[in-house]
Every structure is written in C-alpha cells, then in structure tokens.
Amino acid sequence: MGRSCFPRCKLTRIMGFLQIILGGMVILVSILSLVRFYYAGFFFNNSDLCHSFYNSKEVFEGFDTKSLSARVEEVLEKFETLQAKLETKSQEMEKDKAIILDKKYLEEEILKPLHASNVALRLIRLPKSEGIRNDSAIKEDPLINFFITEEIRKYITPKENREEVKLNAFGSERVYNTIGHACVLHKKDLEQYMDYDIGSYCDDDWNLAQKLMLNGCDPLPRRRCLTRASKVYQKPYPINESLWKLPDDRNVRWGNYQCRNFHCLSSKNPKRGYSKCVGCFEMEREKLKWVTNSSVLADFQITDVLSIKPGEIRIGLDFGIGTGTFAARMREHNVTIVTTALNLGAPFNEMIALRGLIPLYVTLNQRLPLFDNTMDLIHTGGFLDGWIDLLLLDFVLYDWDRILRPGGLLWIDRFFCSKKDLDDYVYMFLQLRYKKHKWAISPKSKDEVYLSALLEKPPRAI
After folding, report:
1. CATH architecture, domain defined by 289-456
2. What is the arithmetic mean of pLDDT over 218-240?
3. pTM for the predicted model, two decimal places
C-alpha cells in the first residue's frame, strides 16, 4: 500500500498561501507608494521636489537647515577643543603628580565653556507648527539658527504681545529687535560682545562694540548686563563752569586709551592716541573758535550765521569729530545742539557729556535717529573732507536734507579737499538747490583748498 500524500500536500498548500499573502502585500505597498508620489507631485513639474533631491534648497518652509548644520558643527568643535584641553591637563597632572586642579583654570577653561556648549545644544530647536497664531503664521527667522550665543538668539526672536493685548502701542502684534545686516559677517566678534552673565557687570569692551559699529554691524543688540563706570566717579562741575573747563580725570575709564588723563591729550603730545580734532581738548584754544576774526576766508562767525535767521535757530545737529565746543558756544546763544561723536582714540563722548552737552553716539554708516523736517540747523566740520566717497556723501546729504526743516540752515564748515576734486564736491553740495547765504573758498595748502558754505533748505511744498 502506497504512502499518503497528505503531509506533502498540506505543506505545499501552506507555502502557496504564504506566497499569495506576500505578493498581495507587495502589490499593496507598491500602490500606496505610487499614490504617495502622486500626491507629492512627483509626476508633475515640481521645482521644490527637484531642489530637495539635489540638495539645492537650503531653507525649507522658513527654516534654514544650512545654518542649523553650521551651528551643530561649531558646538561639536567646542566639545572637541574642550576634550583636548582635559586630556592635556590630565597628562600634565600625571607627570607632576598633581592632586588639586587650579580653581581658576577649572572655572574659566573648563566649566564655563562646558556650560556654554550645553546651553548652545539645548537651544538648537526645530520649527514647530503648534503654538503659532492662526492669524499670523509666523516663521522662525533664519538668523536665529545662525548664531550660537543664547543672548543673540533671544534678542532677535520676535517678541509677542501679552495674550490679552492684540496690538501694542505701535499698532503691531509683536516687536522685532534690530541688528545690522553686517553683523552676520562679524559673527565671532558679535558673539563675544553678547557673551556675558545676565545681571552681572559687562566687560569693558566698548572698543569691541565700536569696531562692530564701524564695520556696519549697527545698530548693535541691547544687552542685559551692567555698564561699568569709574570706581572713583566724581560729581560733574556746575553747568556754567563745565562748558569751558577740562573735566575731572576720575570720571573716565581710561583702560582702552594710550592716555590716562585729559592733559595727556594735548596737541603737544605726539603719542596722545588720536589724530583728528587737533587741540580740541585745550579749552583756551577752543574758546577762540567761531567768535574771533580769522585770516582764513572760510571761517564764519556764529553771530553772523544767527543774524541771517534771527530767533529761528533753536535746535540743531553738529556732525563731526570734536569735544562739543560748537554746541557749547551755541548754548550761550540759547540754541540746543546735539553733537555726534565716536571715541576714536580719546573719550570724546564722555568729554561732551561732562561739559553738560548732549553726545549722540552714531557712525557715518547709520541713518540719523531724528524725524523728518525737525532740525533748524546742521553744522559739519572736521570730519567730512576729501577722503569721502561721492556716493556715500550723496546718501549722507540726503539724510541731512530729510531731518532739516524747510528754511533750515546747512553750515558746511571748513570742508577741505584737493583742488582737482573741488568741482565734484561743489556739485554734490549744490545739487539739492539750496539757497546760498554764504560761500567761501580759501587755500589750505599748495594742492588743497577749504570750502565753507551756509545754505538754506527750500520749502518744497507739495
């Protein structure tokens, strides 16, 4: 009697069922994949999809993945550097049989960088769809992922109004803090500037801040640390005395200057640390400006200028490098002048303020923080001269025109340039069709000339 085929038939049947099931699953997965590609636009001309396949789209839905990758790399480099330091220190300890690690080294070289790196890693966050208002659909600013320092990220993140307030005093739903676009080009310097402990004293790093400003990183972000002042700060002199007297040396932090007192800044000292505004820290010499007769035809007196618009000149701007002498002299005529200043080798801002005058800490790069048609007078001298590019001068003059009121005066004081460039600069000053009240050209040297002018802005009624 032959053997039964039941076990073999049963096994064959089971294998057949498995093949049918697996084949069905393959077909189902294939259909689902085709449907997914269809809805993703794979069979259509979808440029975004092509960009994603070829890695040319670096920003996806408002999120800068390239900057995120760069930030992760920087954080990893910090950890690698820290690890190398620890290994080196460990080897030194083995050689010297050291037991106790120096406390300052531990805090400054290990604990602080380790804490900063941990904070930086925790701040790397992906964009989230939840928590965004339906009426605003805010996307994260790509700049947030460009910087590592926590304070910069917190500063540039848009600040929402409180939930119960839909619109703030400015009529907007949120506040955008500003930094100059050139800050991206000076990332390390800006992160150093913003690396501090909240609520503690700031580093004495105003020169780093000024370097950033002069390189176009302006305006700088606000900081949440306490500004250092002189440890022996004294009460300023009374206003009638302070206008024409050198301030107390103890009221200035001299750490970042070549000089350590105001007398050192004398024009007789060749190592005083600054080159512009020769003699502007010598009060007896400054007292003679704009009030005494001069042999130079380009020198105008303040009384002659004010007599052109009697009673109309009340507020103005002095744009240049100096210690506020023009503002001090105008104050004696009841005219309030704001003086722009940078601390280029000497404490110009502190000097102006200690004289009881108003310093405005701005660069030539920045749009003036004054509203349109508000100033009665703009005076410039000692700074703008033949070094300035004509296109830059064009932007500056139009900004001055913006803040100068109709009928206001533009006083160009001792602008000097080479004789061959004079026609170009004359055209720049006259292109806005201001009325001429005074105009004088006098020789400065064999190849250079002075130009002084007093011009009145036309009404331009529309």
Report:
1. 3-Layer(aba) Sandwich (3.40)
2. 93
3. 0.71
